[in-house]
Amino acid sequence: MSDAALSVLTNIGMISFVGLSAWVLLTVGCVSFGQQAFFGLGAYTAGIATVVWQLPLALALPLGAAIGAGAAAVLGLATLRLHGLYFSIATFAFAELCRIGIELFRYRTTRDGQPVGPDGVEGFGDIRAVFEAGLQPVDQLMLVWFLLTAAVAVLIGLERTRHGIRARMVGEDSVAAALHGVDVARVKLAAAALAGALAGLGGGLYAHLTTYIEPRLFDAMLGVHALAYGLIGGLGTAIGPVLGAVLDIGLLESTRIFVGTRMIVFGGLVAVLIILRPRGILDEALVRRSACLFRRHADARPRHG
User: Which segments of the chain have a pLDDT < 50?
Assistant: First the structure.
């Protein structure tokens, strides 16, 4: 596999985390334009952990996820009474506040005689723990997709639990869910924390595999794309936002035919799909039908012995 293909696949995997983050909130009926904030917080936290504090990557990535979860939980508590457009605006404002805060944030130390650490608008470079560990591009790809596959598997597993069913109930109709005894506030708060953890983990991977980050990388467009991945790929399964990322980054961004027109094509794709398939390509109905066909096929297979 060429280096270019490895880079594209790795990038798809990393950005899929922030897409999953937005998808988790969509399943409980919350439209967030601010998941890039937790992606950025996770990136800076994990980067500081390895570069400044000299912690191993195995600790830095969970720390980035924890900071993302904590920040999302705090925002969730502050916005529990907000709904619809008001919630979306609040998440966007929070993300911009975080981005501006990162622009002002400086936390420098000396390593091997050179200053390292976040330097405000100048960015944060030399995040090289992955490369110092000797991980090659193929290893990096496997690391990203192993963690992404694990995250998707966990989310699919949660869908079948009592907590997942309650989350879907809240997403369908929060008032009806409350009348059936569901603690809507708790469900939304848990979803916010989980979404923040996913974005924070993806941010930590992004910081270490690109080795350089800066505040403008975590702007509004990243949040819009993250939200669109779930809407395009489908709300019926956690695979949906990954499919959305594949279509955008793997097809539109990485092929020459769409050079200069990527955003136009992407915006048109989102508009068409919202009209034709409001719940995305892999919506709940398609997922149910696919599951039924799979079970029928499995039951029809001859059993030996």
Answer: none
